[in-house]
C-alpha cells in the first residue's frame, strides 16, 4: 500500500486517493459503475454481484456512490491483494497528524477469510483517536458517531490505546480499515497486516468428445476380384446348362 499512483484533488484541505495496482479479478463484461470506475465481477450469495474500485475521497461503497467523511482513500482490489499491509503516516517517527481521516478498502476475489494482525509498535491515543476494521465496503459511520462501536455491530472491530491488539478475522471477500484522529495529541500510529484464505476458482468441465459412428471400409481390390469371379462362375454355369438343353432338343428331333 506504500506504492502506487497518487491522484491529488484540489480541496480546501488536500486529499488524495491511492490505488494499489495488483492482479485484478475478473472485470465486468459491461461496466456497471456509475462513475466509470473499474468494475469487478463478484459471486457472494445475498450480496452485490459486482464491486467498483473507488478512486475519489469522500466516496465509498460497493458502487462508490455513498458519501463518507474521509480525506484519504487507499484501495487494494484484486487477487494480488490476498496479502498486504497499511501503515499510518510517519509511523514510529513523528507519528500521525491531527484530524486524520483515512479509509482503506479491500476486495480480494474468492476470499473466505481475511486475517488481520498488528505490528508491536501500535500506539493510538486512547479515548480520542479511533481505528475501525470491518466487513464490507460501506463504513457504518453513523453508528460510530452514536458511540455504539463494535459492541453492537457484528463484524466490526474497534481499537485504540498502546500495545498491539490480538489478531482477528473478517469472514468475507471485502473489508475496510478506517482511522480517525482528533485535533489534539498524536501518537506513533500503527501498521496493520492482512492475509486472506482464497477459495480455488470454479472448475470448468469439458464435455467428452462425441465419437463418430463407425464407417465401413471401401471394398478392396481382392474383394472386388472375388465378387467378379463368383459372378463369372454363375454366368459360365448358366451358359453350359443352356447349351446342354439345346443339344438334348436337337437329338430328340433327329430321332423323330
UniProtKB/TrEMBL annotation:
Location of the region described as Disordered in the Swiss-Prot/TrEMBL record: 200-226
CUB domain: residues covered: 64-197
Alphabetic keyword roster: Disulfide bond, EGF-like domain, Membrane, Signal, Transmembrane, Transmembrane helix
Region forming the signal peptide: 1-25
Residues spanning the membrane: 234-254
PROSITE patterns linked: CUB, EGF_2, EGF_3
InterPro entries (UniProt xref): CUB_dom, EGF, Sperma_CUB_dom_sf
Domain (EGF-like): residue spans on this chain: 24-65
Protein's name in the database: EGF-like domain-containing protein
Organism from which the protein derives: Patiria miniata
